[in-house]
Amino acid sequence: MKKKSIAVDMDGVLADVEAHLITYFERDFGITILREEIQGLTEEEAFYGREKVRSVLNSKDFFRTLPVIDDAVESLKLLQENFEIYIVSAATEFPLSLNEKIEWLAEHFPFIQWQNIVLCGSKTIINTDYLIDDHPKNLDFCMGKPIMFTAFHNAKKENYLRVNNWKEAVAVLKEAV
Amino acid sequence: MKKKSIAVDMDGVLADVEAHLITYFERDFGITILREEIQGLTEEEAFYGREKVRSVLNSKDFFRTLPVIDDAVESLKLLQENFEIYIVSAATEFPLSLNEKIEWLAEHFPFIQWQNIVLCGSKTIINTDYLIDDHPKNLDFCMGKPIMFTAFHNAKKENYLRVNNWKEAVAVLKEAV
């Protein structure tokens, strides 16, 4: 039987963008941001406006040096036994990120083949059985079943099946096999 | 009414890979290849094996300097009036190509937004109403209606609706609106 497919977002789901932004804000702007204080805020509210965030996201090596979210590696390896896993990342807005994301995946997730990597803009034409993402804008137009991965900015959204971490994601998907 | 969507392949459909490979083979290997002699051959048969082709595809600036296929620019502009156009290119196999493809599109197709660009591996999870591609391996698994764009390597394939150039593609899609 054909395996069911899962599209897995990178930023905020495999890669801890939140932690990395906090590190960069401290280092580059001397601004201390506490995780517990930004729950439920938008990215722009949490990180002092669009311009500051974009300047960090556009800086060389930001995407290459992102920390991996807890249990993401082991969980994807496990899920790969029963699902066809695709990494689907909105990346074309930040051209510098393209190669960095490929290198980052090769380092941390070498078991994901190039055939299963999608670097895109809008995710509206992606058709998989599941989408694990932290952004409502992607989950809203998802063709398959949307699964919301908890992030500071979606803390107050209640429209989706939520998983707070990778252990919960694996448990939810185990039910689906 | 929501516009119908078209996924448009890059290599062999917007970008003349065939002509560029011929140029590189003459320049780098002193090998002359004539378009009329490679009709119906596979890429490997036409271009002296997998290794030679890959060495060219992996060379810096190959994808950045590809010539644009006749009428592609005007045709996509025209089609954009009635369709949602996505550029969907298998690119993750050649990481060097990622940025070059984005830059190439920005130069020749500046009216295509980053939201509508997909750099992927397998195209099996792409769901659009139409796919214009030169490779049977992509057209075979297409969720929408496949349209085969003529290339030397598909000259003998007869399983798909074929267009020989962009004028024919526009004519076919005009019928679909």
TrEMBL record, chains A, B:
<dbReference type="InterPro" id="IPR023214">
    <property type="entry name" value="HAD_sf"/>
</dbReference>
<dbReference type="InterPro" id="IPR010708">
    <property type="entry name" value="5'(3')-deoxyribonucleotidase"/>
</dbReference>
<protein>
    <submittedName>
        <fullName>5'-3'-deoxyribonucleotidase</fullName>
    </submittedName>
</protein>
<dbReference type="Pfam" id="PF06941">
    <property type="entry name" value="NT5C"/>
</dbReference>
<comment type="similarity">
    <text>Belongs to the 5'(3')-deoxyribonucleotidase family.</text>
</comment>
<dbReference type="InterPro" id="IPR036412">
    <property type="entry name" value="HAD-like_sf"/>
</dbReference>
